[in-house]
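Deliverable D4.2, example record:
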Amino acid sequence: MTRRRLSSLLLLLLAGYALVILPLLAVLVTAYRAVEGMTEQSVQSIRAQVAETHASLRLVEDTADLERSARQYLLVNDPDFLALLRQRHEGFLKALGSFRAEDLNAEQMRMLDRLRDVENNLFVTLNEPIDTLRGRQDILLPWLSELTALARNVLLESNKQVNIAADSLQVQAAAERHRLTIIASTVIPVVALVAALFTWLISRPIRQIDRAIHRLGDGDFTTPLQVSGPADIQALAVRLDWLRRRLMELEEQKINFLRHVSHDLKTPLTAIREGSQLLQEEVIGPLNEEQVEIARIVCQNSLQLQKQIEDLLNFSVTQAPAPFIEHRPVQLDRVLRRAVEDNWLAARGKSIQLGSRLVEATIIGDAEKLRVIFDNLLSNAIKYAPEGGQVAVALGRENGEAVIDVTDDGPGIPPEELERIFAPFYQAQNTHSGPVKGTGIGLSIAQEYTRAHEGQIKAIDVEHGAHFQVRLPLAGSR
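Output generated by the structure prediction step:
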């Protein structure tokens, strides 16, 4: 089937329906014609056999009357009986004339010819003078007996032909039924194959479009859409591919915007942070307690703002097709210890007890990106922990994996948000109400970097607080 014939989905559907219905329609027409032909033939055969049977019965009756009249005439020699005999002769001839030659076989024709000859000889002889007949009774009586026997044989032969015709119709019906069965057993598999073929032809481009839409939904804008099928489906695929390219352009614009804005904000923020640190360290002169507190607040919030800007930069990196990961041996306990130290000041500002329980563990990965993972988890835990609360970090080894648990005694995460918490820019219901609002991308970055290290990160449902767990393959385990 050429592409021109499959120029649209509608034409493809119509072609499929036609190729499925036409063979079935042809079978129905063939069966109808066969039944109609057999019915017509049966009616004609039954009519012929009924007419022949009626003629045979009439012939038997007329022959019996003729024989009875002939015997009465020979017995009493009354001229009135001769007149009656002539009437019976006329009736006999009419009975013979009611047979149609096309409905008779050779045996029936032979018996009718013999019956006609015997009756004619008998009638001619009976019309001779009475004196002559008295000496010829030895000839007439056998003729009368033969005449009756022949008439009955004609009836028996007619009944025999009725049975033969019935058997012939039965055999013909069985042959026609066998022929229709063969046709049906041939057509039905062909129709099923044609239906399966057109189902595949119709469903294949739909499945291709469905897979393409799923890829777009998963954020894969780099794979071009390739759809084979009717022209209208291909036109739809072209529009979807245009949408894919447009979404890819918008995604690139978003990432570039985040990268540029974050980079542009870092320079003035660095000046603010360094200036506040100089004030807090009283480099330019002594400060009173209120001024020191203000300098500390400015310095602390500038550090938080710097971290959020770094999160934006990291997020733009994670949205690239494949984040670049260095593959070097990394002492995971050292990375965690550094992350704890970096967040010590923020914990101290809220009087939070920041504890750690670490064992030595080595993995293959990127130390800086691993630090980002744990820094985001720790900063989130400190942010949501209450004043004077507790945050704990634990590192262990289990089944060839390094297991890192970060817990806090804050408000926790509702069970229905455990999966959505890692979505970019998603803000949980128990949001932080501090002076600087979070971006909602820290956990998303942690998840992307964990996947890049072939690990897993999840939020565990606990009764109190929040519990995040990271699993990373140990060096040499894979």
